[in-house]
Amino acid sequence: MKNLLKFPLLFLTAILLFGCSSSDSEEDCMKTITIPQYYMVNNQSYSYNISQEVSCDTPEPTEPKLIAPPELEGFAHEVLKFEFTPDTGNNTSRLQFEIKLTNPNDYAVSGVPVLTVEVDGLRTKSSFSNNASVPCYEIAANSSCTLTYDQEESRDVVIIESYELIDVEYYVTNED
Fold first, then answer.
1. SS3 content of the chain, % helix, strand, coil (to 5)
2. Torsion angle in degrees (nearest 10) through CA of 70, 75, 81, 86
3. Dihedral over Cα of 133, 122, 162, 153: its sign
4. 142: left (phi over 0), alpha (psi -120 to 50) or beta
5. What's the whole-number average pLDDT of the chain?
């Protein structure tokens, strides 16, 4: 009688163990999702979405995630010209600069150059690209771009006595 009870119990256990396993195709199912991300520089937001391969049962992300600004790997810069004139004689101040931005990588990038400047003793980070004649939003693979800026501002708006360049970074928005 004991042997008779053991056989159905063993059979039932085997069915539960092997009959409920999922097929290989379901286990191997993968998909690529886009993860929305963004970062902020001086109250300006920049998107930086990444793609990632995940299992098919992973839900699609809906809310963008705030991240630290991703810097261009191996980025280099050379200041060709940086000149600030506090008073041009026309009741304006003038800021002019040319900065060579170099992408040493074998892929093109899209992004934004960000300058750390000290204005009358106050240090701040800003992208001057919106008003630049050459904004360098893209740099080709193994190439350079010269960020070119030349703007005058009325001294009626603000009187600035000193303008010093501290650092230059390149934050990536897309890698090709």
1. 15, 50, 35
2. 20
3. positive
4. left
5. 85
The Cα–Cα gap between 71 and 171 comes to 5
Name the pTM for this structure: 0.73
Alpha carbon distance 113, 43 (integer Å): 15
How far is Cα 9 from Cα 83, in angstroms, rounded to an integer? Answer: 88
- Say what the pLDDT of residue 129 is: 92
User: Alpha-carbon distance 111 to 138, whole Å?
Assistant: 6
Residue 121 φ/ψ region, left for φ over 0, alpha for ψ in the -120 to 50 degree band, beta for the rest:
left
Per-residue CA distances from 138 to 57, 87, 147, 170, 175 (Å):
36, 33, 11, 10, 10
For the stretch 145-170, pLDDT in tens is 999 999 999 999 888 999 999 999 99
